[in-house]
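Chain and backbone:
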Amino acid sequence: EQECLVQLTSFHGGFTLEAVEEVVDLSDHPGAPWIPFVVESLMEKSLIRIDPPTDLPGMVRFDMFATIRDFARARLPDSVQAAQARHARYWASFSTPERSKELGLPGSIQRIRTLQVELDNLQAAIAWGLEAQETSTTVGACVSASEPLLSCAPARLSHWLQRGLALDDLSDEDRVSLFKILGQTLERRGN
């Protein structure tokens, strides 16, 4: 449970059980229960709580209080770092056609609302990718975050895209993807 709690600190603004199953890795603990059971146990101990989004009825999200997050993060910093990498890669994966379909049709209300709820996680993934100089994660997270940021915070999106374009090992294809989104952003901002 402690290991799971520490790894949950990689999430920002809450998380779904599906995301937890992708990010939390308890393989170093062979006798560990199934992750949903661990999440349930953490909830019963009031270490995490249900935090349903108001504009997405039926979606079950969890979160933890900041004091618990800070305490857990300080306990096992190596576990936090590995979980942050898995977290960033998970959110970047929504830029792939296979994962993108899980969110609904591009531009649909459901998709944009889901991405807006996950905006803190998406931005944390971009920040991690930039800090780690992991180009594929940075680009994927920028693409994943582009829909909600384009509609609610184009200046912030422009900032992330410009930082992504400054990465050294950016492929031509990735550069085109980021420039295309940057063009949409600048058009939205009236530049």
Remarks:
- The CA atoms of residues 27 and 33 lie 11 Å apart.
